[in-house]
Amino acid sequence: MNRENSTYLPDGPAIRGATDTLYSSEKIISLDISLEGREKLPKSIHTVVFDLDGTYIDNVKKFRTHFVVIAHQVFGVTRKEAALHFMANPHLPSREQVRTLAIKRGWWVESPTVKKAGEDLFERCSRQKGKLTPYAVRTSEWLRGEGMRVAINTGSREKDAENKIFGTELNKYVNVVVGSDSSLDGPTLPPGEPPVVKGDPQLIITARRLGFPAQDYEEEFKPGIVAVTDTPGDVLLFKAAGVSVFAIADYATTRVKMLRALSEFPISQYDQVASSLEHLRGHIERINFKAAVGDKTEVV
User: Where are the beta strands (DSSP E) in the chain?
Assistant: First the structure.
């Protein structure tokens, strides 16, 4: 299906042709995306969109283990050096982790060896399960109990993401899972297709699967969602789409990095950086209260 010609696509970043290098702030900034007229102050929240790995599932340490093994085998670096490299930017997409190490070591990033190492790491991380993060179940249960929808947008493949939550308590609370190979209509994309990235590309699919008409995407769907992530790169992608962000600054992602990412775009009172999912409930309650009383004041 040619999604570029789909009537469902709004003005903005295209779904196809993007790669996971969009996660770097330099790439996002170079797009020169204007949010004038697009940044919508939230109405009452109807959907919360969660990143999966690191936000819902605590598996970043296992990602580091996979990276260290591949970096040692392919590039010959010590395990300590590999671990330090990973922890410098623990939430980079897996292929980007390998590329940045290759550049550091003087390798040609387009070489078959580097590409294969990146694909190997992606495969291992995409399938890596883990325990649920604190407050993941409690928060999701509260959201659904209040009549809100729960969606997952992830860099993993759709089926792999579903397998990560299958058998956990989250399975009964999540309405929609959208991954890097998700399609607007029909089955998932075949191997080799450019990944569907977060921000507008995955949000468009999320809206369609939740039953929002195409014409309501900008005016009804996006103003009523909050995106939850623990990754600065995701913050850039969601803010580029013009949606509010609840950023989790845990042990691996500093508050400074999150604030720096947020500062690249207009920040409103509906964006927040917090230490854990524990604070999401209060954040949403404040948004819904302000929406109920008609508070439209934006903090710049």
Answer: 47-50, 57-58, 131-132, 149-153, 176-178, 225-229, 244-248, 272-274
Which amino acid is located at 163 in the chain? N
Residues in CB range of 31: below 8 A, 6 or more apart: 13, 240
Q: Residue 195 contacts by C-beta under 8 Å, 6 or more apart in sequence?
A: 18, 19, 20, 155, 180, 181
pLDDT tens, position by position, 133-167: 889 999 999 999 999 999 999 998 899 899 888 88
**What is the rounded CA–CA span in Å between residue 132 and residue 130?**
6
Task: Name the nearest CA neighbour of 56 among 183, 211, 166.
Answer: 166
Percentage of residues in the chain with pLDDT exceeding 70? 82
Mean local confidence (pLDDT), 256-278: 85
String of DSSP letters for 148-176? -EEEEE-SS-HHHHHHHHTTSGGGGT--E
Nearest-CA neighbor of 232 among 200, 258, 193? 258
Write down all domains in the chain, each with its CATH number in brackets.
3-58+131-292 (3.40.50.1000), 60-127 (no CATH)
